[in-house]
UniProtKB/TrEMBL annotation:
It comes from the Bacteria. It comes from Microbispora catharanthi. Coiled coil: none annotated. This is YbaB/EbfC family DNA-binding protein. PANTHER family: NUCLEOID-ASSOCIATED PROTEIN YBAB (PTHR33449).
Length: 265
């Protein structure tokens, strides 16, 4: 069976596709390197509270000026939340710019990799397979059943991806530190939703309080990620009962469903 490409020889277009793919991969590598260098900074309480976040939205530092300890616990909680959100938003803005630049490279691909070409090749292949169906021999019915099952599973997966993403986005992570005197709630994307500093925590030195805040935040983000991965793992088992899914499979699905650089505003 000979398969041909429109508008040129298979070899010429194959070479062009390879070159384009290499360009895309180089661009993605550059984006990943750029994201690793991204930092965002935010502040609250007139600069007495400062936070820093990396390109993944992870908060890497919280600094509290000793004078901030004069504030009421509830006020300080709000100012810490404001500083962290500002840092994460600043990092996200820069990350979005890098991702948008990478996406523009992909959408700018020439004909061999665009949607029209892919659809053409799929239709052509389907016609050729249909014309040569007799070549499958006595097992063709079994293979047709397998294809039908695969199509049904693909439809189930597509439906789950739409519903599952909404369920995952509703997940919140909870973290505590300083013997429960500090509580942090984050979204599944790691974005801070709430920081609660109890009055008893105000007795801590400012540096210790900052360290405990960072610890509670990390625990909340880990909790949200754990819940999300469990949801993906459960969905995989439901969609494909009897099959074993290791950490790599869960990571692949988790990464596909949860896009860390597309956090809602």
């Amino acid at each position: 069976m000979s398969l041909s490409f429109p508008g040129g020889s298979d070899l010429e277009l194959l070479e062009q596709m390879i070159r384009q793919a290499e360009d895309v991969m180089r661009g993605l590598a550059d984006v990943q390197a750029g994201i690793r260098q991204v930092t965002g900074e935010g502040e609250g309480a007139d600069g007495l509270v400062r936070a820093r976040a990396d390109g993944r939205g992870q908060v890497t530092a919280i600094t509290l000026d000793p004078r901030v300890m004069r504030l009421d616990a509830a006020v300080l909680s709000a100012e810490v939340t404001r500083a962290i959100r500002a840092a994460q938003d600043a990092a996200k803005e820069r990350t979005d710019e890098l991702v948008a630049a990478a996406q523009s490279r992909v959408t700018g691909l020439a004909a061999p990799l665009d949607e029209t070409f892919v659809r053409y090749r799929f239709d052509q292949l389907a016609q050729e397979l249909d014309a040569g169906a007799d070549a499958f021999g006595p097992h063709s019915a079994d293979r047709a059943d397998d294809l039908e099952q695969d199509a049904e599973r693909a439809a189930q997966i597509e439906a789950w991806l739409e519903d599952g993403q909404r369920e995952i986005e509703a997940v919140t992570g909870h973290g505590r530190a300083a013997d429960g005197r500090i509580k942090v709630v984050t979204t599944v994307y790691g974005q801070v939703r709430e920081v609660v500093i109890e009055p008893r925590a105000m007795r801590l030195p400012s540096r210790t309080l900052a360290e405990e805040l960072l610890l509670a935040l990390g625990r909340a983000q880990q909790d949200a990620e754990r819940q999300s991965r469990q949801m993906v793992s459960d969905a995989l088992r439901e969609l494909a009962p009897g099959e074993s899914f290791g950490p790599d499979a869960v990571d692949e699905w988790f990464g596909g469903v949860l896009k860390p650089f597309e956090r809602p505003d």
